[in-house]
Specification:
- By secondary structure, the chain is α/β, with parallel strands linked by helices.
- The chain is 33% helix and 23% strand.
- Strands 3-2-4-1-10-9-11-14 form an eight-stranded antiparallel beta sheet, covered by helices on one side.
- The longest helix has 22 residues, at 549-570.
- It is globular and about 80 Å long.
- The structure holds fructose -6-phosphate.
- Fructose -6-phosphate binds next to helix 7 and helix 14.
Length: 588
């Protein structure tokens, strides 16, 4: 998704902005651009392509820059940001979607403004020009008041050492330095320079010079903001010797799981007592975590739980219900999940979010927040943020089950002990990485594959298949194993391997029959199980550390992440930045 950054200070702006753009590459983009102020001139360079293709020698210590992920207008030089107005007095960068841009564009064109791109963003520069009456800040407020939609905007004005920024439903954070300040879509953009951060909320505008940061609401009232100290190091955000961020992040899971548990234990964590039904809302990988949450809620709390994709929930008709809505989003910025949170609030439902990012937008939209402690995740494919979402849900549900007296202290103690063992179990499966590489060689020669499982392992199969398709570009589909005979069995033959998660729960015997079914059709079967005997039903068995089924899902997930990773590696894919995908999907 687009990344925006602004800098005002004493360093060469082009260097700071270039570094920031590199740090935001993980968000996914197709074009890049930069504007740096020198005296009374805005120097501008932009193009389709990667950050490394941007060669500029601009002098100056104030500037803005952008990585674009095309929404309106195809990815080309013309549509890349920054945009300027007709006279070249203002330069702006934008992330989000201006919903009323076509009316604004018509109005501005009628007033004589000339447009050079197909984007919605360009109207912002022309609106500044239209409203400018000798006061940049005043023009900026007037411009913002005309916009509808989601936006994070950063703008500069020729001859002024001042940056204006605005946030509404798209991420924007301010970095506080000494005689220099930063503004960007996310923290790693300026973490090389400062770890002091102000998170802007929706409906806020910032005015930044090298020595001052002021924040206002859209009506111009000053807003007092807290400065947070970020303890991620830049190194945290780098690969640390691994070939890819994704692999590094897979290996970081034992620590991330442990820290998530540890941090949750330091406060009171439980669901509100009046809850009669839970609606989970999430997208992508986070949706799979929510499906795991549904199984856990039904098992331990004995109340109904349903799962919704954010993109569906936001358009759902009103029904007679009063659920607790649990929104899961690692970034806290996914547009469909944020819109769902707003809908849930409008309907007066209680809302809880589970997110990995402190100060992210979702935290402004819900009644309570639980944080996972996965640290920054750079690889586009979610790994450690998924397993930490699972463990956060798991912990939350067990605590609630005890508080609601749905389980005895003995069951609680036993389940918690098993949960605390999860990081060690994950550590142990990381040791069989070599075996997985061998299987990846086989899978890389195929075009289609099925992932099957039942019950609580089904979300793991869904997530395994999603990982495989997004980074290897092979077709992988997950099915509840019992459903195969209702259709997809027709597709199974020796060219379609089947990957099965077989845990020793009440569906174990049924799963063994399902393995027989697919083997009989010639499929090469890779089974992942705690049970040696499953080897009799499969061509390859990846054995999991001994565990109860509820915790076996964690090492099983990690094995499937590794299987996808190595398959993609054999195929030479761009693992950390798969084509067509973005880390944080901040537009609908
Ligand atoms: C897949 C992946 C995506 C995200 C989805 C939701 O590996 O990362 O499917 O899970 O875009 O993102 P968040 O959790 O940030 O709301």
């Amino acid at each position: 998704m687009c990344g925006i950054v602004g800098y005002v200070g004493f360093r060469a702006a082009r260097v700071v902005l270039f570094n920031a753009l590199k740090r935001m590459e993980y968000r996914g983009y197709d074009s890049v651009g930069m504007a740096v102020l020198k005296d009374d001139v805005i120097q501008l360079s932009k193009r389709r392509g990667y950050v490394d293709s941007l060669h500029v020698d601009f002098e100056g210590t104030v500037g803005i820059a952008h990585t674009r992920w095309a929404t309106h207008g195809k990815p080309d030089d013309r549509n890349a940001h920054p945009f300027t107005d007709c006279r070249g007095d203002f330069a702006i960068v934008h992330n989000g979607i201006i919903e009323n841009y076509s009316a604004l564009r018509k109005m501005l064109a009628g007033a004589g403004h000339e447009f050079v791109s197909d984007t919605d963003s360009e109207v912002i520069a022309h609106l500044l020009e239209e409203h400018y009456d000798g006061d940049f800040k005043d023009a900026f407020f007037k411009m913002v008041s005309e916009l509808r939609g989601s936006f994070a905007i950063v703008a500069v004005h020729r001859g002024e050492r001042r940056i204006m920024g605005a946030k509404n439903e798209s991420p924007l954070v301010v970095g506080i330095g000494d005689h220099e300040n930063f503004v960007a879509s996310d923290i790693p953009a300026f973490l090389d320079y400062t770890n002091r951060v102000i998170s802007l909320s929706d409906g806020e505008i910032c005015e930044i010079t090298e020595d001052r940061v002021k924040v206002y609401d859209f009506d111009g009232h000053p807003v007092a903001k807290k400065v947070q100290f970020i303890d991620w190091s830049v190194e945290d955000a780098e690969r640390g010797g691994f070939e890819h961020f994704m692999l590094k992040e897979i290996y970081e899971q034992p620590r991330a799981l442990e820290e998530t548990l540890h941090n949750l234990q330091s406060r009171e964590v439980k669901l509100p007592g009046r809850t009669e039904k839970i609606s989970f809302v999430a997208c992508g990988t986070s949706y799979h975590a929510s499906l795991f949450g549904k199984y856990m809620v039904e098992r331990y709390l004995g109340i109904p739980a349903e799962t919704h994709y954010g993109s569906e929930y936001r358009y759902r008709d009103k029904v007679r219900e009063n659920p607790l809505v649990v929104l899961i989003t690692q970034s806290g910025e996914t547009a469909d999940t944020l819109a769902s949170a707003r809908i849930a609030r409008r309907r007066n439902f209680r809302t809880i979010a589970i997110t990995n990012v402190l100060g992210s937008s979702i935290t402004n939209y819900v009644d309570a927040v639980f944080f996972t402690s996965a640290g920054p995740e750079i690889g586009v494919a979610a790994t450690k943020t998924f397993t930490t979402q699972m463990i956060a849900l798991h912990y939350l549900i067990l605590e609630t089950a005890l508080a609601w007296r749905r389980i005895s202290r003995t069951v609680y103690d036993r389940s918690m002990a098993a949960l605390r063992d999860v990081p060690h179990m994950v550590d142990r499966v990381l040791e069989i990485d070599d075996r997985i590489m061998g299987l990846a060689q086989k899978l890389a020669k195929k075009h289609d594959m099925y992932y099957i499982a039942r019950g609580m392992s089904y979300p793991v199969a869904l997530e395994g298949a999603l990982k495989m398709k997004e980074i290897s570009y092979l077709h992988a589909e997950a099915y509840p194993a019992g459903e195969l005979k209702h259709g997809p069995l027709a597709l199974i033959d020796e060219d379609v391997p089947v990957i099965a998660v077989v845990l020793k729960d009440k569906t174990y015997e049924k799963m063994l029959s399902n393995l027989r079914e697919v083997s009989a059709r010639g499929a090469y079967v890779i089974a992942i199980s705690t049970e040696e005997e499953v080897g009799d039903y499969a061509d390859s068995l990846l054995i999991l550390p001994e565990s109860i089924p509820e915790t076996g899902v964690y090492p099983a997930t990690v094995l499937l992440q590794l299987l996808a990773y190595h398959t993609a590696r054999v195929l030479g894919r761009e693992i950390d930045k798969p084509k067509n995908l973005a880390k944080s999907v901040t537009v609908e």
